[in-house]
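Researcher: Go.
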Amino acid sequence: MGFQTAEFHEALLFFEGHQVCKEMLYAEFEAVLDGVVGLTDFANETRKVAYVTFDNHLTVTGCVLFTLEFGGHGDINRSWNLPLRHLEEVAGGGPDLGGGAIRLACKTQCPIPWHQAHLWDPSLGAADNDLIAISNAIERNNLCIANDQQVSPSLDNHSTSHSRPLKVDRREYLSSPASNDSEDHSRARSAPDSDLQPEKLSSAAAFAMQIAASSGPGGVEDDRVSSTPKPALDEQARKKIAGIIRKQRLQISTLKTEKNEQVAALQFNFKERETEFESQLMQQRTLVASLQAQNDAIKMQYESQKSQLEALKLDWQEKFQQQLANKDDQFERFKSEYQELQAQQQQKQFAELKETVEIKKMELIYRDEINKQLREELCQLRRDKLRLMNSGADQFLDKLDRIGVSFISFHPGAGHLSIPLEDMVDYMEDPTRYAAKKCMVSTDHYRRWLRHHENPSCQCEVTPGNYCNTRIRRIEVPNQFASGEHDRCEIHQHGLVQSSSVVKFARH
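Model: Structure:
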């Protein structure tokens, strides 16, 4: 569909802060996309850009607010494929910039959800209004568009002036509704009386001039106000109020979108930290359990040796009593033998325990050495991998990237993802984790949502091994899916506790 006709024109406005710093026609932008020319002023930058459609009266009719990333030479990535014209065609209603409500596509009001990440919301403040800046830039006509305002029809030709439509500037509705009346009054007071000839103006122009000259410096209306129809004044007031309401609704939607993004980012960071802490806790628990098992084994070994020592002691005591009863002269010899044997046993046990401790120490040292060797081997393998990648596959991928081949993969919830060359390794290791990161959710959350997206049915377990399987509404966005709520039908969402109690009673 072509917009560059006698009635509508296309332009791109580049922003620096809240001011337009560069303007170009869409044909010039296509040359930049094709790599014919580059915008060196924006090299290695990300700029806010506005795609604007306007008519021959220099009145804005549609607007798409998107971001654009530039390379080192001011060129645009060849994988950039944002459908600006389609977004403008299907966009929702926006504020009134002079010719009625425009079609506005921004981050808060995006008709195609998977393009929302590439859009931005305008500022609607009184001092830094981006939409006012766009309207002012189009009216300045720095692009030298032939427009109807360059033709000044003669006032004495009643038919020509009557056929020209009256253009009402509604941009002031977005900033200060009262300033319009004061400027019209000042223009009416400064205009000479000779110009106010209603018989030479069209009915619409004469009506506008009567409204502009309706009040004097002191705020006292003259007798011409009585000729102004009240329904027309009420219609203008309603249009002003409608413009202000549209502005406030757009600003509220923008603030809600920013708040939801901040909350989603905080929740994602919290879940990542929670997962990390749980992993560390499991490692510590495993280490404590291992040390406890070793301690229990040593205690059992000690008790066994202690019982053996006690049995041996009792045996020698019995022999000693027998020898003492037979011969008193052997008492001292048996006593010395017993003491010597007891010392030997103690030394032997101490040596065994010491040897056990030394073996444990050697095992720890050996394990540390193995870990060190494994780390060195891992580093060597990584270096070999990098060397092979640099000499083989990466050169091939770099050649593909230089000739403009892009890697695009489709994942539910994330849409068509353009995978940069530097992210190709992460994507090949785990595509699901890569898609979950793009959707700002955890990998487990994305897998649960994916099962729901592929089979949107109730997963409540009615009986052991049997599920409800009632068809439910599919949740299209992963970060809006809540497990246990959105994968249940309405009956099991509200009666979850009651159904579980019924199942328990049936089991008994």
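Model: Residues 185 and 219 are 10 Å apart (CA to CA).
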